[in-house]
Design goal:
Layout (H helix, E strand, L loop, with lengths): L4 H17 L4 H8 L3 H13 L3 E3 L5 E3 L1 H23 L4 H14 L2 H19 L6
Antiparallel strand pairs: 1-2
Helix pairs in contact: 1-2, 1-4, 2-3, 4-5
């Protein structure tokens, strides 16, 4: 199932907040993403209906296995592109902003190929010495 960029942003934010705080409420997501509480409530309802999220008795947000998977992939893409842009000399604020756009636009196949290329390049550039 294809997931919209905004849904990926919400899932990624919930994952980050869970890692930082342990438990996450809608108000935490609203503050983190700098959006209104009604926007979060709408997104939460949609994510719950699609099986990416559930809410416990205390109204804490909990990622389902499917939601966690999407969030982790989105976060991995974000971190990869943010780091690559900063390595290329882009200032951190711009790198974060642009990585957020790239993470939603790139296919899984292209992302995997770029990761493999980066790994090969890194291994090559730090690898063995050239024979004389």
């Amino acid at each position: 199932m294809e997931v919209r960029a905004s849904a990926e942003d919400y899932l990624e934010a919930i994952l980050l907040l869970q890692r930082r705080m342990g438990v996450v409420r809608s108000v935490d997501v609203a503050q983190h993403l700098e959006v209104s509480k009604p926007s979060v409530c709408h997104a939460v309802a949609s994510l719950r209906a699609k099986g990416f999220l559930r809410m416990d008795q205390r109204r804490f947000l909990i990622l389902t296995e499917a939601g966690r998977s999407v969030a982790e992939i989105t976060l991995e893409k974000h971190q990869f592109f943010s780091a690559m842009l900063m390595e290329a000399g882009v200032d951190p604020k711009t790198a974060e902003k642009e990585a957020c756009r790239i993470e939603h636009a790139i296919s899984t196949e292209s992302f995997e190929r770029l990761k493999r290329l980066k790994k090969e390049y890194t291994n090559h550039s730090t690898g063995g010495t050239c024979a004389d």
